[in-house]
């Protein structure tokens, strides 16, 4: 089994509150909040204000993914009683260990994301400090991209390192996750599946969440 974190980047922004309320009722585990700045990635999504506007309808935790440069400037903005994870990119942090400490100082769990071309060795020195490693299985910046199969090897290797050292971080995968590849992703060690189009574009969202998570 895996937990399911639908990405609201794929929701209908004209009725975002209703879409979020629906996935909460349909059994999703997290609301995945993709924050893009148009600098670290070539697109702009939304900021903390949009996320906080959902506080009254969100009954499951926020899983915040900061695809932004110098994320330390904005960490506090995304801290709410409903925020469980704040994830930053290894590639965007000048002092990653310090940024992880910064997130923890706010009472929120810290995640680190790796782009497809970034090897696991780049985070090996902080694996005992993080709560989540997010493996990007597409290049970040746009929804609806095709899954990069090499991500499976990275997840498998990360799970091996976790087990060998007794680490307790969870592994999340984001990008191109769908009903066809979710079983393989779970089999190599994925704990949380981020799914945008696979949930919000599905004819039956409740069934999609159930299949992804079972």
TrEMBL record:
GO cellular component, one term: cytoplasm
Binding-site positions, substrate: 7, 65, 141-144, 174-176, 196-197
Domain of life of the organism encoding this protein: Bacteria
Pfam families, sorted: Ribul_P_3_epim
Cofactor(s) this protein cannot do without: Mn(2+); Zn(2+); Co(2+); Fe(2+)
Gene Ontology biological process terms from the UniProt entry: pentose catabolic process; pentose-phosphate shunt
UniProt catalytic activity: D-ribulose 5-phosphate = D-xylulose 5-phosphate
Binding, a divalent metal cation: 32, 34, 65, 174
Keywords: Carbohydrate metabolism, Cobalt, Isomerase, Manganese, Metal-binding, Zinc
Details of cofactor binding: Binds 1 divalent metal cation per subunit.
Family statement drawn from the similarity comment of this UniProt entry: Belongs to the ribulose-phosphate 3-epimerase family.
Record protein name field: Ribulose-phosphate 3-epimerase
UniProt source species: Mogibacterium kristiansenii
């Amino acid at each position: 089994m895996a937990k399911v974190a639908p990405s609201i980047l794929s929701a209908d922004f004209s009725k975002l509150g209703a879409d979020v309320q629906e996935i909460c009722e349909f059994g999703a585990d997290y609301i995945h909040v993709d924050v893009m700045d148009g600098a670290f990635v070539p697109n702009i999504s939304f900021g903390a204000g949009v996320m906080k506007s959902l506080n009254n309808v969100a009954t499951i935790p926020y899983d915040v993914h900061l695809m932004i440069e110098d994320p330390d400037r904005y960490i506090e903005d995304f801290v709410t009683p409903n925020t469980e994870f704040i994830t930053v990119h290894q590639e965007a942090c000048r002092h990653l260990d310090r940024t992880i400490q910064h997130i923890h100082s706010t009472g929120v769990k810290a995640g680190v994301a790796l782009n497809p071309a970034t090897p696991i060795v780049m985070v090996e020195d902080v694996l005992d400090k993080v709560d989540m490693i997010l493996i990007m299985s597409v290049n970040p910046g746009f929804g609806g991209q095709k899954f990069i199969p090499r991500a499976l090897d990275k997840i498998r290797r990360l799970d091996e390192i976790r087990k060998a050292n007794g680490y307790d971080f969870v592994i999340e995968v984001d990008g191109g996750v769908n009903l066809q590849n979710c079983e393989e992703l779970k089999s190599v060690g994925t704990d949380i599946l981020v799914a945008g189009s696979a949930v919000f574009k599905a004819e039956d969202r409740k069934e999609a969440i159930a299949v992804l998570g079972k």
